[in-house]
Amino acid sequence: MSAEQRERESGAGGVDRRRFLVGSAAAAAVAAASSVLPGIGGTASAAARPNVLLIVTDDNPKQTNWAIQKTIAWLGGQGVTYNNGHVTTPLCAPSRSSIFSGRYAHNHGVRNNGASYSLDQSTTVQHHLKQAGYRTGLFGKYLNSWTLADNPPHFEEWALLQPGYVDAQWNVNGTVQTINGYTTNIVKNKTLAFLSKSTTDTRPWFAYVTPYASHEPNIPAAQYADTVVPTWNGRPSVPEADRSDKPAYVKNATNTLADGRAVRQRQLRALLSVDDAVQAFKDKLAALGQLNNTLVIYIGDNGFQWADHGLLGKGTPYSPAHEVPFYLSWPAGGLGSGTTDNRIVANIDIAPTILAAAGITATTPQDGKSLLSGFNRDHLLVEWWKQGTAGVKDSWASYVAKNRQYVEYYDLHTDASGRVSGTGQVTFREYYDLVNDPYQLTNELYQASPADEQNLGIPALAAQLAADRQS
Questions:
Q1: Domains in the chain: how many in total?
Q2: Helix (H) or strand (E) holding 187
Q3: Among residues 18, 42, 47, which one has the least CA distance to residue 31?
Q4: pTM higher than 0.85 for the full model?
Q5: Which of 2, 155, 230, 425 is deepest in the core (most CB within 10 A)?
Q6: Mean pLDDT over each residue of the chain, to the nearest integer
Q7: CA distances to 317, 341, 393, 424 from 396, in Å
Q8: Does residue 427 belong to any structural domain of this protein?
Q9: Residue 382 placed within a domain
Q10: What pLDDT, in 10s, does the model give residues 383-425?
Q11: So which residues are the signal peptide here (predicted)?
């Protein structure tokens, strides 16, 4: 272990000195700029408040670095790489609602992709920013099941995408229309036009940029259709030789390494255009003189399994489904020097971070914490609900730490509005030692004795999970 690694890992809370100093610099920058605007307590002055560029990709696994090298060079090389980035619900609409609100799905109510209208729009970061005088724009996908003709609340300008890759339907500032072309490029161009308006509109701005990539069917742009991607030979969880200790939906899974390779190839090719767009955003900000004081965040709305445990997709408690790429850059806030941060961070931390950077105090509760602060959680709640009664996978919740993970499945399901029904009875449990078993091959609760459970600390984990689900 290097001296730098020892420094990062030292201390009872695991808070490394380098990250603490960076966070302190960011907090000091915010404090130095802060003043109070009418009706907005603790809002930074208009001249000092950062612009905010929030880039959210779709079904973007953590292991996609090859396809986003320009993004990493900018946001990792001139910002912060979060090595332990997660989403708290590995499903599109719940995760995006957590990004907007800083809340767990059990608090914001969007527990499935059909429940988008359950989100209280007054809790969103775009609401708070618009109220504080920000110019707000949305470019790309919004929330699953959102009616295209319905304008997205609290955005001043938008190009709302009906999910698709080529010649798709859009709602552009209230007009539903077909725009021919590749949608990632259209998202890029609409965003660039929005940024350019800052030459005549001096308000700080918030741009929510969300291409459809790398969601199925993962169609790449024409120039990348045949791009050769690096060979991938899987990982120990692809395929898992013995799944007898897993729940039934995993034991019955049939996807192979070849299936995982095919999805991976398509996803990487689709993300190449996202990477081009991010580079274009950087170039535009530099040309506008706004690169230094723009807070830029990049995150996937959930991960994706490449045949891990025989499964393709998301919505499971296994690491590839809820681990995501997560980058942040804000040079004016002290976050521009190319550091790594090993804290457990999540999508619920994005809204608190943006509001803290802008000096805005949220008027509604938030479960996440500002990444500009010195918080250091020891675990994270990750949760998912079954929609309807026909699915083969039960609802579940999980205690996720760096060194271990505990999972409970429940007899629960939701309706299209996100309302929960069922007995709540625990139907299956899993426990993984993530230090010695990072690929989650051995469920240590399978056939475990009461003494084994005590030795693993299961009673305390179960109690903490229950408390997290009620918090």
A1: 1
A2: helix 183-196
A3: 42
A4: yes
A5: 155
A6: 91
A7: 8, 28, 9, 10
A8: no
A9: no
A10: 999 999 988 999 999 999 999 999 999 999 999 999 999 999 9
A11: none
